[in-house]
Design brief:
It comes from Brachybacterium fresconis. It is an enzyme of class 6 (ligase). This is GMP synthase (Glutamine-hydrolyzing). Pfam families: GATase. One of its GO terms (molecular function) is GMP synthase (glutamine-hydrolyzing) activity. With 245 residues, the protein is an alpha/beta fold. The chain has a single domain, classed as Class I glutamine amidotransferase (GATase) domain (Rossmann fold). Helices cover 35% and strands 23% of the residues. It is built from eight helices and eleven strands. Strands 2-1-3-4-11-10-9-6-7 form a nine-stranded mixed β-sheet, sandwiched between helices. A two-stranded antiparallel ribbon has the order 5-8. A hairpin with a 6-residue loop joins β9 and β10. The model has no long low-confidence stretch (mean pLDDT 96).
């Protein structure tokens, strides 16, 4: 099998390592089947479409729609690398699954309006498939229910999609929770790479980053512990199964 590639854009080593472990676990891929690259500090490896099965881009503390002057050097580097890579992904039809930061980057690249209109605080939300979502091969392979629980926490979101993009899932606050361009490039607003324990662990690291009020943190965690969000991670395994070659 050609390996997949996992892209990280998190400057914090401990969070990046935890994210790596989650993707390995939920995708079912082995270490040698999932190349790991951190675009906040390194360029994308010298790989071509024929060398890999697909690319997974996880979440990030970075925000695409923020003004350029507010972004750190690491954020600017990661963003530039991701957009260069997306040029190739679209041109060469490389399978792609982006989560949270992935919806902002793929959306921006494809002409979506990404802004803070539909930001959502940390929490578990109801996600509903659209008619197109119910017919989508990745969603079908993951066996997602028509309505399922997703884990979110984001400042920006899709306000409008371009006409050529297909909305696959929606939510009450952020109307675009998942979309597809072409037949093999996907992005989700919710996190398929997280479960309840891992989103709580990550939230502790980012408690002062504006995703929620720090004073409410323990109450939010208590509410999260009462929920189950075991369907979104199936997307990672489905992505690996559907596009492995």
């Amino acid at each position: 099998m050609k390996p997949f590639v996992q892209i990280a854009t998190r400057p914090e080593d401990d969070v990046a390592l935890t994210e790596r472990a989650s993707v390995l676990s939920f995708s079912g891929l082995g270490e040698d089947e999932l190349i790991w690259t951190r675009l906040d500090r390194d360029p994308f490896p010298d790989l071509h479409a024929e060398d890999i099965s697909g690319i997974i881009l996880c979440g990030s503390p970075f925000t695409v729609s923020d003004p350029a002057e507010s972004k750190s050097a690491a954020e600017k580097r990661a963003e530039a690398e991701v957009f260069r890579l997306l040029d190739r992904i679209i041109a060469e039809d490389i399978p792609f699954l982006g989560a949270c930061y992935g919806i902002g980057t793929l959306g921006t690249h494809q002409g979506a309006v990404i802004d803070r209109t539909h930001g959502e605080p940390l929490g578990a939300i109801e996600v509903s498939l659209t008619a197109a979502g119910r017919d989508d091969p990745l969603v079908a392979t993951a066996q997602l229910s028509d309505t399922f629980t997703g884990l979110v926490g984001h400042k920006e979101a899709v306000r409008t999609l371009p006409e050529h993009a297909t909305a696959l899932a929606t939510g009450a606050t952020a109307p675009v929770q998942m979309f597809r361009v072409g037949t093999r490039q996907y992005a989700t607003q919710f996190h398929p790479e997280l479960d309840i324990p891992s989103i709580i662990e990550r939230a502790r690291v980012y408690r002062d980053h504006g995703y929620f009020s720090p004073d409410e943190m323990e109450d939010i965690f208590l509410a999260l512990r009462s929920r189950t969000a075991d369907e979104p991670p199936r997307l990672l395994r489905a992505f690996a199964e559907l596009f492995a070659r």
